[in-house]
Amino acid sequence: MTDLETHYLADDGHGFPNSRLPVVVFRGALRGDAPVMERAFADNGWSNAWRNGVFGYHHFHSITHEVLGIAEGEVKIAFGGPDGAIVAVGAGDVVVIPAGVAHCNAGQSDELLIVGAYPGGHEWDICRGDPADHRRAKAAAAAVSADVPDPLGEAGLLREAWRPSRNDP
To answer: What is the CATH architecture assignment of 3-143?
Structure first.
């Protein structure tokens, strides 16, 4: 069985809205190379895939959720903005990031390769935490439905993990 972690991140009040939904980390959930991960995500309704790493600056997507599959290597990802949580993930781990949650590469191994995808192949945007855009970005992220397919299929338990927290919506 896959180990599941949740990380709840409140609005930082400055530019990163974060989400009432937690970041979900599935440890050791998907073994295989990048094409295997891409295919698994696509088979479960997540497409518009890319292969690369995580940007080295804090950013978020206000119009879609994102899944990251760590195909090779290791990375520390800072979630929630500069004062958020740092989570280390490695090959085989899968991370689901709700719309609005800031994320940033906080250090990686040389061989890092990530497969990213979006529910329903949704297009994505890049928001960098501009305080002047905070209200719009927060409303946009809050409007993104949590009713999405689980990128790991039924075994992933995303719907169970995505229950609202006490954080502001």
So the answer is: Sandwich (2.60)
